[in-house]
Amino acid sequence: MIDARGLSCPMPVVMVQKAVQNGTPATLEVLLDNPCSVENVTRFAHNSGYAVEVAPADEDEFRLTLRKQ
């Protein structure tokens, strides 16, 4: 799980990119609290071959589940 709450772009994308490069996990969960970061991480994930599910985690927070296709 990557907790990128409180961070602004590009840091959440960089954190996901490092996790993907360090082992290409089949599933990866990411916590975010910024809608812009949700869009950017989703775009990166799609370009890296992951399907993305976005669900609200708490107030103003999002849980992204990335699954390798």
Automatic annotation (TrEMBL):
CDD domains: SirA_like_N (cd03421)
Domain of life: Bacteria
Start and end residues of each UPF0033 domain: 2-68
One Pfam family it belongs to: TusA
Family: Belongs to the sulfur carrier protein TusA family.
Protein name: UPF0033 domain-containing protein
Species this protein is from: Subdoligranulum variabile DSM 15176
